[in-house]
Amino acid sequence: MRTTINMPRVGDTVDEVYLVTWKKSVGEKIAKGESLMEVETDKATVEVPSPIDGTIVELLFAEGDEIKTGEPIVICENL
């Protein structure tokens, strides 16, 4: 079964972030809590953990892209 992971809120007043780097690639397995990506806010760089265990099927943004809270960012195949 496939699951879409959405961009979580990374701060009380943060509505969008910029993707600095992906920590995983398509085809790689990821565990719940493991770092999925690193994003930059107007104040800090933050690691975003995976909310599920799975295998990455598709990354929906490229490094440097702006991502709004709640937008789909990854499609995973559940383990």
Element layout with pairings:
Elements: E1 2-6, E2 16-22, E3 29-30, E4 35-40, E5 45-49, E6 54-59, E7 66-68, E8 72-78
Task: Looking at this protein, list some descriptive labels.
79 residues; mainly beta; OB fold (Dihydrolipoamide Acetyltransferase, E2P); four-stranded antiparallel β-sheet; globular
How would you describe what is shown here?
The chain is built from no helices and eight strands. 19% of the residues are buried. The protein has strands at residues 2-6, 16-22, 29-30, 35-40, 45-49, 54-59, 66-68, 72-78. Strand 4 (35-40) and strand 5 (45-49) form a beta hairpin. The mean pLDDT is 96. The chain has a single domain, classed as OB fold (Dihydrolipoamide Acetyltransferase, E2P) (Beta Barrel). The radius of gyration is 12 Å and the shape is globular. The strands form two sheets. A four-stranded antiparallel β-sheet has the order 1-8-6-3, with no helix packed on it. A four-stranded antiparallel β-sheet has the order 5-4-2-7, with no helix packed on it. By secondary structure, it is mostly beta strands. Helices cover 0% and strands 52% of the residues.
Which of globular, elongated, flat, extended, rod-shaped describes the shape? globular
What is the number of beta strands? 8
Total tally of structural domains: 1
Secondary structure class reads mainly beta
Give the overall pLDDT as a whole number: 96
Oligomer: single chain
Helix % is: under 10%
- CATH architecture descriptor name: Beta Barrel
What fold name stands as the CATH topology?
Answer: OB fold (Dihydrolipoamide Acetyltransferase, E2P)
Radius of gyration: 12 Å
**Biggest sheet, in brief?**
4 strands, antiparallel
Q: How large a portion of the residues is in β-strands, by DSSP E?
A: over 45%
Q: Please give the order of strands in the largest beta sheet.
A: 1-8-6-3
- CATH homology group: RNA polymerase II/Efflux pump adaptor protein, barrel-sandwich hybrid domain
Count of helical regions: 0
In the CATH scheme, the class would be Mainly Beta
